Please model this.
Amino acid sequence: MTAIVFDKFSYAYSTGDPVLHSIDLTVPTGSFTVVTGPEGSGKTTLCLAIAGAVPQYFGGRMAGNVTVGGVKTTAINMADLARQVGTVLADYESQLVALTVAEEVAFGLENRGVPRLEIAGRVQQALAMVGLSGKEDNEVAGLSGGQRQRLAVASILVTDPDIIVLDEPASALDPEGTLELYRLLGELNKDHGKTIVVVEHHLTSILPYATQLVVMDNGRIVLDGPVMQILTAMVNCQLYAEAVPALWKLKFALEKVVKVSLSDWTSPGEAVIELKKLLASRKKGVAKSA
Model:
C-alpha cells in the first residue's frame, strides 16, 4: 500500500518561478522516509504539498497530483486532511497558538469535539512521549526553543494521525534531544505503524530508523530508494555528498583501501564491533603467516 504519491507534480508560488519540477515519488505505508538536499532544493514545499497547504493555502500554479491515502490533496479540505497527516514545519513557532503547554496540546482535540476527560488523558500521554511531563501549566512563551519544538511535536502526536511529516524537527534540539526525538519517531514507525516523513540535513542520528532516502536538488528528486543504496550513490556520484555521515565516508574509504566489503553501519556501535572483528581477523592471519 502507498501512503503518499506524487505524480509528475510541479508547483510555483504565486510570486515566483517553479520550485518543484515534475516530482514523481511514492512513500509506502509504514515507511520512515528521510528527505535531504541543499538549501532551497524544494524540501519544505514538498512537505507543504503533502499537508495540502500547497496549493490550498498558498495558491500559486501547479501541475500533476499529490494523493494521500488514495485521495488527491486538492479534493479534500486541509482540516480533513489534517486528520490523516500531522505536520510540524521548520517554522514550528508559528504553529503554537495557546498560552500554556496543556492548552496547546489540547487545542486540536478540542476543535474536533473530543470529550474533555479523554482530552486530559491524551494530553498527558503526548507530553510524556516528548519529555514534557510536569510542564502542563507552564507558559509556552517561557519554554526554551527545544522545548517549544517538542511541544509542537506533541500537539501533532495527540491527534494520532496515520502520517507524520516533520521539516527539520531537530533544528532547535541538542544532540541528546535529537537522539530522543528520533528514537520516539522510530518507535511510532515500528511499533505503531505510523508513516514518517522527515526533512533532515544531518543524517547520522536518523539512520537507524530510516527505510527510504530521497535526495532533492533544484526542485527535483535526483535520488530515491533504500537508505544504504542511496548513501552509496551520493558518494559515488557526488550528489550532496557532504550530508553523508562521517561514519559512512570512513566505511567507503576502508573498503577501497583494505579491499574488503563491510556491512551497512547504522550507528557507531555497529562500526566499532565490525572493525574490531576485522582487526582481530587480520592479526590472526598475520600470526599464522609468521
